[in-house]
Amino acid sequence: MFNHWMTKSLLGLAMALALLTPASAQTDQTKPAPHTLIVVSIDGYRADYIKRGLSPHLEALKARGVYAHAMRPSYPTVTAPNHYTLMTGLYPDHHGVIDNNMVDPKLPGIEFGRPSFAYDNDPRWWDAATPLWVSAVKSGMIVAASAWPGQASRIHNITPNYLQTWQYNLKPAVQSQMVLSWLSLPQADRPRLILLHYLAVDEMGHAYGPDTPQVNAAISDVSAALGELFDGLKQHGLMDSTNLVVVSDHGMSATSAKRTIWLDDLFNVQDAIVPSYGAFAGITPKPGHTADIEKALLKPNAHMTCWKKADIPARLHFGSNPRVPAIWCEAKDGWLIMTHAIDNAYYKKHPINGEHGYDPSDPKMAALFVAAGPDFKSGVVVPDFPNIDIYPMLARLLGITPLAHDGDDTLVHAALK
After folding, report:
1. Which residues are marked as active site?
2. Looking at the whole model, is its pTM more than 0.85?
């Protein structure tokens, strides 16, 4: 989804600067500094994964900080929309990143989320909102981000100061090392806000399913990377001045090719634009085919429910954005909505054994929330909450006045000192 940047040069620069810190900068480092904020997203880490005994560093963080049994993701429960919700406090319908794959009537001929992901960094996909990192840079803070969705787009002509961009097989341990290299910079060059997005758990969940050894191994790998990060914070003497917020974007449900609804069996998919498929499908009929496709999709189906976009249930806070297709279909838990028009050779070789995108009220979609640091209460379990409430809490931690958002201060009061 993101352009590939070289990481070795950043790592080398950080280490060199750390070794060659001038005396004046070393003196500055002795002065009290505002607390650092690190936001970690473990993609696809279902809320109940923490109970598997494979995340000791998260369990330790939970014991000394604040924890929720479940954070409810926004709809649709997929990666790009929910990461932008975490950074804006807006539902996807309001910030405009409504799916991992989308088209826009105002952007003809381009599509978001399709290989080679050439258009994903076009700021027009993102600039209906202002994410926290843009507000932080505007306020004079230094910001760093590792593989965070949207980071490489010049949203309102601003990107984070330091970037480690996503690439295939980017290892969690390498990302933790990059974060520690940023934190080894002289205080004047050190980021105040760091965004870190680990993808391994989600990737294994899709490939093998949530209840598999491969997912457990990915959970262990991410735990080890977190342990390396936490140890590095202690070695740098930064643990007591760093607020850590660890979340996920959504959960994961087991699926199977045997539980597939083929849109081709219901209507001629050549008569529609279908940018979305998986746990849900978005369908916009081409001119002259609306009546036939509505008749095929809006009737009862045992394994999915379809609505005209205006009729999507209000509790999902979805359907008003012009990027939402004319008809929206949601599969029952564990089912997939697919079309033969996609690359079936790929999916036969790489079957989808786990998926997300289902109703946010489904416990399998529940996301992680653990946080600790000098500004957090200790040993507190907060009630379950929607992820739109993360943004005002993060803004408070940075001393930034939050922009208009859909959340409230319930989490701020429950979690912060």
Report:
1. 79
2. yes
